Amino acid sequence: MTEEEYILAHSDAEPDYLALINRKTHLKMINPRMMSGHLQGRALSMFCSMIKPERILEIGTFTGYSALCMAETLSETGVIHTIERDDELEDFIMENFELSGLATKIKLHIGDAIDVIQKLDDTFDFVFIDGDKREYADYYDAVFPKVRNGGFILADNTLWDGKVLKNVSSNDSQTIEIMRFNDKIARDNRIEKVMLPLRDGLTIIRKK
Ligand SMILES: C[S@@+](CC[C@H](N)C(=O)[O-])C[C@H]1O[C@@H](n2cnc3c(N)ncnc32)[C@H](O)[C@@H]1O
Which of 9, 53, 54, 129 has the fewest C-beta atoms under 10 angstroms from its C-beta? Predict the structure, then answer.
């Protein structure tokens, strides 16, 4: 048994509808590894159960897996906005939201995250950044004024397969930009932060 198998055997199972979306994503998408998956999905759900956000924003929907993990914890009045740039994913995402029974809690925005964030007239308790790694610092700056004091921002893939620890070539823009984001977060004294080695690195940020 691998460490991951042991961890999953001692954590909650994926709800059936998420296991189905996980399978569909592996069957139909070229890069299914982008999906949060079982362990990180249960962690996102647990964080939301702890924080009890009413208004959530996600940058990077992909097939809807992580949006649903967060949506499952929302109260009757809670809502999650999730932004996806690739309009070819829209039908697949909506199909997944419908089969989950949680569609009424989720507002999908097809478009570029920076444009959509600027148009959203809302304040958020919890933000999950999981879009283009080269744009993390821009997402952070765009969303920060819309996060309430005491609210949380989670950023995924902040270890970027361990590449942030190595000498990177000057044309590896994703690694360079993740490193720039990590350094920016480390220096920012408006926030508390902790980086967890969960899956590909998950940074938890709390706005003071
Ligand atoms: C890693 S995947 C998201 C995975 C998903 N959050 C999950 O955990 O299952 C990143 C997604 O962000 C989308 N994306 C990239 N840049 C974006 C942008 N500027 N605005 C909106 N979506 C973007 C990509 O098309 C892709 O579907």
Answer: 9
